[in-house]
Amino acid sequence: MMKLLTIAAVLPALAFAGQDRSLMSEAYWKIWNDAEQARIDSDIEKNRKADGAFEIDAPDGEAVRVEQLTHDFRFGAHIFNFNQLGKKEYNDAYKSSYGAGGLFNQATVSFYWIDHEPTPGAFRFGGDYMDTERYWNSLTREEALRERYWRRPAPGPVIDFLKSKDVAIHGHILIWGNAKPYWIYDWYCPENEKRVIDEIGIPRRSAHLGWEPCGQNMHMGYMGKWMKAWRNAYDGMIAEGLDEKSLSSRIPTFVANMRRIFRKRVFDVADAYGEFVDSWDVVNESAPDWMRYRKARTGLPVWFSTYGLMPGDYPLNALLDAKEAFPASVRLAINDYTIEDAFLEQTKQLCDDGARIDLVGCQMHIFNTNNCMRLVNGATDVGWVGTPQTIRERLDMMAKTGRPIHVSEVTIAAPGEDQRSREMQAVLVRNIYRAWFSHPATMGVTWWNTVDGAGVAGEPLASGLYTVDMQKKPAYHALDRLINHDWRTVLDVTAKDGKATFRGFRGRYRLTWKGADGKAQSKFVELK
Questions:
Q1: Do the Cβ atoms of 66 and 501 come closer than 8 Å?
Q2: How many C-beta atoms lie closer than 10 Å to residue 285's C-beta?
Q3: Is residue 479 classed as helix, strand or coil in its secondary structure?
Q4: For residues 203 and 224, what is the distance between their CA atoms, to the nearest angstrom?
Q5: N or C: which end of the chain has fewer CB within 10 A?
Q6: For residues 441 and 390, what is the distance between their CA atoms, to the nearest angstrom?
Q7: In total, how many domains does the chain have?
Q8: CA 279 to chain centre
């Protein structure tokens, strides 16, 4: 027989500290009703637990303590604010979220190309004074927001920290059009080809629109101007009948260099961190480009991408390069916010053309706080999380890829900055996380900005699990309750026939008991 030591696991789904039904509308609870909660509980029991029988040297009837130490499911967050929060106590609180005793057993580490190779070959992997806690503690938050490397710490010190905490590491990102370096145009486009680009009106980022490398918030504003200029240029090229092949014939050196440099990017990162990072977003947000071409392998030398000029077939080539460059043990992912049939079709075509995709990353950002309040009021059309049924349907669709699903970037903001709004956020977070966790294809969920006001322009100020002064919000406590209590198995069983038999959440366990000689014994086991 076995006895649960945690009361939370046997309580009804709605009965937990902070789950106040009066916070939400009646329409909300009609959607997230008791029947849905019971179904989620049943799916969690079925999909997240396993039975195990482990040999132990214990006499029949001996009590065996079963304690779960780690979880196979990846509860993640990005760690982009590492040592950047302005005070040692803030940074220490931030770091305490990762590893044993915290919330997160996986961290997404910043590998944005533009910020980690500011000039060709000048890698910011190891870090310098601008990556130290001392430097960031010398700045106000307002000054930090204007810094070029805000939310872009050098990965070396971050990975050292995560390794010391036994936290799984997810690299983000290898290839994304919005993160390609501006120096590709400056260094690798001959002057005669630059003149062609300028005559056509194609914006070259470093040479146009007054770009200054001073903080992501300003960079995002610049990007808006640049994207508008690119759209105007694209419309003009199409109107004049200038297609990808004809443009490539006029700038052949630059086109060839782009493909070579993109490939080199993948191999450079693999050479530095291929053995140390567990998984990678190889390609980011490419579904809009795929929808334009509808083929993974077009054979075109250049693409008129959402992000300006990109190497032709860049999603496929990046994945093929990563397949060649990284060890087979490293999991490769494609990541997107387009959780539609287009993402599914693109993934299938990429695999058919030889890409190795081990994970699919599905983003879920609610950047508009009004939409969070709409959820509170019972709206069903917010993103893909309006109802438990919608969540199941979208995850079922993505599961057709045959790959595990990483809910890779999550923003669920509080509707406001008052305490009641924070408590509403906690209810939203708890129910949505439970629905994700219950699905058999989901392997992990990654929160995006864990600290209020620590994102970039366009991301809500109240989207964190911590306040700006690093006080834990109700949403933090809601996740802590789930991750460290409801979803962690701690129980007593009785030895029989030299075995300890139990059902629990998948992960690593310690079994302890007294042997026939009365001495304490222990054994570590994996429940799969």
A1: no
A2: 21
A3: helix
A4: 12
A5: N
A6: 15
A7: 1
A8: 11
Exposed, middle or buried: residue 308 (CB in 10 Å: 0-12, 13-18, 19+)? buried
**Residue 155: inside a domain:** yes
Specify whether the CB–CB gap between 495 and 60 falls below 8 A. yes
**Cα-based distances in Å from 391 to 42, 165, 167, 409, 439:** 16, 32, 28, 15, 9
Q: Which amino acid is at 138?
A: S
For every residue of 277-293, DSSP letters joined together read -SEEEEEES-HHHHHHH
User: Tens place of pLDDT for every residue, the chain, 528 residues?
Assistant: 444 443 333 333 344 444 688 999 999 999 999 999 999 999 999 999 999 999 999 999 999 999 999 999 999 999 999 999 999 999 999 999 999 999 999 999 999 999 999 999 999 999 899 999 999 999 998 899 989 899 999 999 999 999 999 999 999 999 999 999 989 999 999 999 999 999 999 988 654 444 444 556 555 556 778 888 899 999 999 999 999 999 999 999 999 999 999 999 999 999 999 989 999 999 999 999 999 999 999 999 999 999 999 999 999 999 999 999 999 999 999 999 998 899 999 999 999 999 999 999 999 999 999 999 999 999 999 999 999 999 999 999 999 999 999 999 999 999 999 999 999 999 999 999 999 999 999 999 999 999 999 998 778 889 999 999 999 999 999 999 999 999 999 999 999 999 999 999 999 999 999 998 999 999 999 999
Which domain range does residue 142 map to? 72-180+263-488
State the DSSP string of 155-208. HHHHHHHHHHTT-EEEEEEEE-GGGS-THHHHHHS-HHHHHHHHHHT---GGGS
Residue 5, in any domain of the structure: no
Contact 148, 215 (CB under 8 A): yes
CATH of residue 128's domain is: 3.20.20.80
- Nearest alpha-carbon partner for 247 in 197, 311, 312: 197
Q: What Cα–Cα distance (Å) separates residue 94 from each residue in 392, 449, 470? A: 32, 11, 8
Amino acid code (one letter) for 319:
L
Residues 6+ apart with CB under 8 A from 437: 44, 48, 73, 445, 482, 487
User: Do the domain assignments include residue 228?
Assistant: no
Spell out the SS3 assignment of 285-349. CCHHHHHHHCCCCCCCCEEEECCEEEECCHHHHHHHHHHHHCCCCCEEEEEECCCCHHHHHHHHH
**291 φ/ψ sector (left φ>0, alpha ψ -120 to 50, else beta):** alpha
| Six token digits for residue 402 | 């045959």
For residue 440, give Cα distances in angstroms to 70, 404, 469. Answer: 19, 9, 37
Q: Can you tell me the distance from the alpha carbon of 340 to that of 91, in angstroms, rounded to the nearest whole number?
A: 38
The DSSP bridge partners found for residue 188 are: none
Residue 173, amino acid: I
Report the alpha-carbon distance of residue 206 to residue 85 in Å, rounded.
30
Entry pTM: 0.94
